[in-house]
Amino acid sequence: MNANCDMDDNVYSYDDIDGLLNDQFRNVAHAGGVYEGPNEDANKFYNLVDEASQELYPGCKGFSRLSFTIRLYLLKCLYGWSNASFTSLLELLKEAMPGLNIRISYNKAKSMVKDLGLDYEKMYACPNDCMLFRNDHKDDEYCHVCESSRYIKYPEVDSDLEASKKGYRVPPKILRYFPLIPRLKRLFMCSKTADTLRWHDEERSKDGKLRHPANGQAWKDFDSLHSEFARDSRNLRLGLASDGFNPFRTMSISHSTWPVILMVYNLPTWMCMKPEYCMLSLLIPGPRSPGNDIDVYLQSLIEELNVLWESGVETYDALRDQTFQMQAALLWTISDFPAYAMLSGWSTKGKLACPCCNYVTNSRYLKHSRKMCYMDHRVFLPMDYPWRSNKRSFNGKTEFRPPPPLLKGTDVLNSLQNFNNVSGKKRKRTNDGSWKKRSIFFELPYWQHNSLRHNLDVMHIEKNIVDNVIGTILDIPGKTKDHANARYDLKEMCIRKNLQPKDTKDGKRTKFAKACFSMTNGEKSVFCGVLKTANLPDGSASNISRCVQLDERKLSGYKTHDAHFMLHYLLPIPVKSILPDHVAIPLIRLSSFFRRLCQKVITMEELDCLEVEIRETTNQLERIFPPIFFDIMIHLPIHLANEVRLGGPVQNRWMYPPERYMCTSKSYVRNRNYPEGSIAEAYLVEECLIAHFHHFLDGLGVF
What we know:
Blueprint: H1 11-15, H2 17-24, H3 26-29, H4 39-53, H5 65-79, H6 83-96, H7 106-114, E1 121-125, E2 173-177, H8 180-187, H9 191-196, H10 199-202, H11 217-225, H12 227-231, E3 236-242, E4 258-264, E5 278-284, H13 294-297, H14 299-310, E6 313-317, E7 322-326, E8 328-334, H15 337-344, E9 364-366, E10 371-373, H16 409-415, E11 454-455, H17 458-473, H18 484-493, E12 502-503, E13 510-511, H19 521-533, E14 548-549, E15 554-555, H20 560-570, H21 572-578, H22 581-597, H23 604-622, H24 632-635, H25 640-647, H26 656-666, H27 675-700
Parallel strand pairs: 3-8, 8-11
Antiparallel strand pairs: 1-2, 2-5, 3-4, 4-5, 6-7, 9-10, 12-13, 14-15
Helix pairs in contact: 5-7, 5-27, 17-20, 19-21, 21-22, 22-23, 23-25
């Protein structure tokens, strides 16, 4: 708080309720006596003005009736009070202080606070995700694709019953859409926030290091292609994140709700991924994932993004006290790998699972393990590298193919021009089966020219790598990649004869040689003991020791952040002391790669070194572990350094902030029959209170 602020002054003066209402209802308050806005807004405005003019109690100078309700409601949201407890508190305050001028029920207080905020739209959806009942189909009774009813059909009710007792028409799915344009306009209502929205251009360090997405090549390419858009630094660059979560916090109920979250990259690095600056755009209902039909639910958002790009919207800038034509563009999406397929349309399963290598993905089906493996990473090495001609240590063949080129957006769009998207049914694919749809994002005029359209998520890649490494070197049943079928695959591929299964002389048993990465029971105990007894700084990670079972010599139940911390800092310690050097060194280099990749500030020279290092490391691992070890998650690190080069530090492009946001959303669920409704209502209140809390702080100079 401002040190010069006199706490004896009138508190109501810095709450600035009049300024708050003028900003929220600018078209009404500035009409000069002739009302120009919609009647509904006028009623809200004048009702709130009346609330703001009423004293909390006779002679009170610190709070108005409205400001006290806002502050009390903020406490309710911050500390998770139930609706009933909030009502009881209001009743107790009224009983203890009869002169207190407050509303004495949760619903009445909520209606007052909600008038200050924004709203959302409900759109009925086909139960098979074929279409939304909107625009021309708003009043349709049946889906025009699969002919399903827009309402749940219940048994017929006796016509003699009273009308009030007849069945209520309930839709099977309701999409909740939070309009984007008013929320973006609201960012400029606070003068301090309006100032930080130009930080990327006016205050960002421009010393050539990567600190912010604006330092990435994708941002620079976008500015060079769209110079008119880039001319005004207030035009917004957005990112989109989506993933499914179970709102019930229990695995006994199968339910997948999909929020779509937008973040603003104009803000400084330390702000753009904060929850208060992330905007919920869509809440796609469960109980199942929308899958490839997520495009059906994205239609309204894409329409708004097109308006924001083509013509922009008139927006008031509180800092400069002027209006300007605000535009916005979507730079990329953030998701885990399965959701990557849903958003991009590229199949992330099968022989062409890598979206970066695309049509020239090096893959092979393992007959005995019945899995796909992704090896042959020598194609990424320099053409004169000695390993390219080394047959014995790899797959028995030389490798002189060039690395696969990145697939440009223009090439993707050209190849999908005649692709027939079908919602809610099995899609027609191209001959190679790689494309499942033409993504709705290509309806954005600039999308095909974006250098980085979809991000690989470092968070989930790290988790899967740790699973593979720990499961294999500890030989955890069900997790290890070194099993009997893996050894038979070696025999099928005619590689590593020393590890191939061999029959005994009597032919009754099959012998499996010990691999170089295998550990004895004593070594496994030492490995687990190091992780069990590690003393970690407070707040750096959760209690990893709870995941270590010393008696069974295994790890289980660790989360993504636990895997992140183990990969960066803990695993190299026991690996170096237990495993032979030719095994330990590649694993330590892998750990070092991710630790350096996740730096908040990184130079282009470091990225070039990391790119060379991960290519060598992956090839070293190919000489050690069996082919089944190399699933798609072991392959994807090859492309991560280039994505940092394009998009900037990984902290702005991974799933940690969206996952935390979804965890918070779970706490909003009060009615388990309608979890999405609970989340939407709670989000509206929190959004309203956070926005106006910033307004209060702006008036105090507290930023």
